[in-house]
Amino acid sequence: MTNANPAPVGQPHWRPRYMALTKHRIIVALLHILHIITTLVVLILAVYLLKHFPRGAFEPRLQGVNTPRAILLSAIDLLLMLPILGVSLSRHNKNFLGFFTFLLGVGWVVLFVYVLKDFTFGRFGLCESLPYALFNGRPDYARCKIKRVFSAFIGLAAVTNFLATICYCMWRVADEY
Fold first, then answer.
1. For residue 39, what is the DSSP state?
2. Distance from CA of residue 47 to its chain's centroid?
3. Which of 12, 61, 131, 161 could be 105's S-S partner, Cβ–Cβ 3.0 to 4.6 Å?
4. Contact present, 167 and 102 (Cβ < 8 Å)
């Protein structure tokens, strides 16, 4: 009869079947929830801009070009982010999710740059592009407010997405054991 003991728990070859819902998982899930909320706001504002401010002769920008891009990116993001949120709350290893959130974050940053490059910092603040101001005079302040909120939420969606990506990268080792 041999006196062989099994390997103690925690040896390098041992991996748990599932992980507990730890603090870093909760933080990542909260970032995903905040991102989903901001994405919904972007989607609602984009539809509102497209419906109430149709593209004019001198403004093929937010209402005509970037708004459909925002609607498309928001729809794709919501289709992917809701399952990612579910997986991030599950108890199984999920280090591959950082890659998908990074790709979505790149899309949000590109859209944010496209939206911001159409604004001018002039007499009326962050509002209209220079061609629009030259040809149409004073801007519509209601539309300016909506555009500012629209841009802010696109930026917030990009920031929350990249924070979730950074959290996935930072806690990768902690996620494996």
1. H
2. 18
3. 161
4. no
pLDDT of 43 > 70? The answer is yes
Question: Please, what is the angle between helix 23-52 and helix 67-89, to 10°?
Answer: 160
Q: Give the pLDDT confidence score for residue 6 in this predicted structure.
A: 58
Q: Is residue 27 included in any domain, yes or no?
A: yes
Q: Establish if 147 belongs to a structural domain.
A: yes
In this structure, what is the dihedral angle of CA atoms 32, 93, 90, 172, given to the nearest 10 degrees? -30
Tell me what the mean pLDDT of segment 146-155 comes to.
Answer: 79
Measure the N-to-C terminal CA separation of the chain; round to a whole number of Å: 34
pLDDT at 140: 64
Q: Quick one: which H or E segment has residue 164?
A: helix 141-170
- Tally of structural domains, the chain: 1
Mean pLDDT value across residues 114-141 = 59
Nearest to 124 by CA among 142, 145, 139, 146: 139
pLDDT of residue 65: 57
In a domain, 74, yes or no: yes
Answer whether residue 9 is part of any domain. Answer: no
C-beta separation of 61 from 33 below 8 A: no
